[in-house]
Amino acid sequence: MNEMMKLLPEAAWNHVVNGAVFLDITDDEGFSVLAYDQVNSIELTLLELLDKLPEMDKTLMYVAGGYDEATGFKAANLLAVNGFEKVGYIADGIRGWFQEGLPVRYHVSGSCGMGNEDHCNDDGSDGCGSCSCGCGE
How high does pLDDT run on average in the chain? Predict the structure, then answer.
């Protein structure tokens, strides 16, 4: 098996801005409340990742992140056991990413909110059931 790197959020960010492919792993239904932002990412479930493996380039660097560290680890492990050599996962998942001050966006009732007031309606809602930005409070 190839070695996986446990990456602190800042190191993961550096890999991604320098060309690593970022895999944002969601839950089994394809949903996440909080998503990594300002990085080009591929948002998918672990099962979808398994399906994509044959078409992925094994020479590229991949960084996997999910809600928690275990989710990113599972994705990175899946890549490593399938012959991908440059694989990392984010220590502490999106919580660690957020705590380091790296950009996130909020999904409200399924990928609506962006964590700012620009998407909110006059009544403080964002058209998705609630507003993550706090406007209208």
Answer: 79
For residues 114-128, average pLDDT: 42
Q: How far apart are CA 104 and CA 114, in angstroms?
A: 8
Asked if residue 55 has pLDDT above 90, the reply is yes
Rounded distance between C-alpha atoms, residue 10 and residue 90, angstroms: 9
Q: Is 129 exposed, middle or buried (0-12, 13-18, 19+ CB in 10 A)?
A: exposed
- pLDDT more than 90, % of the chain: 50
Q: Which domains does the chain have, with CATH numbers?
A: 4-106 (3.40.250.10)
Whole-prediction pTM value?
Answer: 0.74
Can you give the chain as a three-state secondary structure string? CCCEEEECHHHHHHHHHCCCEEEEECCCCCCCCEEECCCCEEEECHHHHHHHHHHCCCCCCEEEECCCHHHHHHHHHHHHHCCCCCEEEECCHHHHHHHCCCCEEECCCCCCCCCCHHHCCCCCCCCCCCCCCCCCC
